[in-house]
User: Which sequence fits this backbone?
């Protein structure tokens, strides 16, 4: 074996790889950024626990229910938003809280009788976001703790189960003096939450953005072949030429999104339980975003090879911050706020709102406006920065 030749070939490969600075940056930056993202979500085990956002409505307005409300608000596990029952249920339906507790009218009196004498138990409705159902066990457990404490104080520390109460069984088994009714807060109450709806929103956004990368790289390849020089010789403006690419890319994105959701609806029973017009509006706005993003890549990219890697990295950052991989509701509060500057967050949340959340067209207005604003920004930068000439090496 010719070891001198072997060493020379190895050295050549190493020099080629490490001389490509963009590829090197990608190889180092991508795992660091993605690892930091998942570390921020799942924590190191020493972070302060995230408080669970819940809604609380007190229709009873008794001393006991007010004591329960005060205890829930003081609980370190909860971030409580109070309001009437319609308001807090709406918060759960929109995904702004994980659950909404509604204490019914007459709760205190009925629960006190159930505690002391075995009367019928009041029903506490807990409306919950079905995509965040894991919080229900904690919500129910802590609610029971606070209710029992408030009721015990109100009856002077009477023993649970009614021991010693007039007319109560001597050895009554302990049970909670109320029951909870878990209610899914979605657009349709006649069918359960379908987790495929969020999955298709996230993966649809991710892979259509990847298509946008191919649109941008295709423009760069056309420039390398000299096609843009020939088009420039024709009486066509820069805006017209680049605008045509935005339109064709948007149409392609719309077709792909339609096929993806056709499969979701036909095979996995995903439904548009909200506004159909809102869903279409968000789809169009996202298609324009995808196409203008691809054109932005072409405008700032020097070569197809270098641009593809950086574009993939940028896309991965956008989709992971947008909640495509991990739903945004599990993000730490600071990251949930920060991710609102990423257009993909609005696309995923908007598609969720129009499908399984079942929200109306008003919930689509903000996502559409944000996506169109980003599309206009990307397109403006692309038209301004696009270079008709292939950069020299």
Assistant:
């Amino acid at each position: 074996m010719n070891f001198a030749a072997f060493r020379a070939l190895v050295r050549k490969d190493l020099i080629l790889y490490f001389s490509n600075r963009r590829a090197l940056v990608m190889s180092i930056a991508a795992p660091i950024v993605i690892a930091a993202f998942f570390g921020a979500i799942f924590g190191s085990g020493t972070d302060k626990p995230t408080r669970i956002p819940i809604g609380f409505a007190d229709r009873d307005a008794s001393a006991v229910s007010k004591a329960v409300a005060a205890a829930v608000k003081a609980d370190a596990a909860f971030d409580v938003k109070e309001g009437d029952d319609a308001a807090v249920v709406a918060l759960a339906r929109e995904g702004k809280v994980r659950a909404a507790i509604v204490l019914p009218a007459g709760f205190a009196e009925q629960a006190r009788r159930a505690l002391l004498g075995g009367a019928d138990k009041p029903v506490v409705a807990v409306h919950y976001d079905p995509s965040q159902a894991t919080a229900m066990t904690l919500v129910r457990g802590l609610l029971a703790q606070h209710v029992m404490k408030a009721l015990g104080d109100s009856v002077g520390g009477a023993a649970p189960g009614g021991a010693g109460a007039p007319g109560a069984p001597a050895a009554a088994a302990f049970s909670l003096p109320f029951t909870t009714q878990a209610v899914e807060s979605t657009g349709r109450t006649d069918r359960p939450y379908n987790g495929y709806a969020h999955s298709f929103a996230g993966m649809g956004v991710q892979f259509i953005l990847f298509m946008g990368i191919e649109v941008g790289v295709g423009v760069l390849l056309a420039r390398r072949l000299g096609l843009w020089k020939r088009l420039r010789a024709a009486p066509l403006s820069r805006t017209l030429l680049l605008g045509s690419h935005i339109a064709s890319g948007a149409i392609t994105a719309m077709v792909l999104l339609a096929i993806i959701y056709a499969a979701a609806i036909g095979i996995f029973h995903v439904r548009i339980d909200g506004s159909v017009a809102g869903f279409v509006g968000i789809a169009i706005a996202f298609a324009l975003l995808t196409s203008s993003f691809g054109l932005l890549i072409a405008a700032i990219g020097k070569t197809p090879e270098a641009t593809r890697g950086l574009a993939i990295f940028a896309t991965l950052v956008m989709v992971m911050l947008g909640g495509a991989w991990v739903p945004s509701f599990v993000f730490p509060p600071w990251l949930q706020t920060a991710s609102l500057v990423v257009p993909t967050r609005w696309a995923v949340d908007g598609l969720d709102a129009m499908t399984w959340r079942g929200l109306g067209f008003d919930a689509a207005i903000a996502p559409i406006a944000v996506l169109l604003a980003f599309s206009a920004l990307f397109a403006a930068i692309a038209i301004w920065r696009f270079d008709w000439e292939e950069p020299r090496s």
The longest helix spans residues 238-268. The chain has 14 helices and five strands. The CA atoms of residues 285 and 372 lie 6 Å apart.
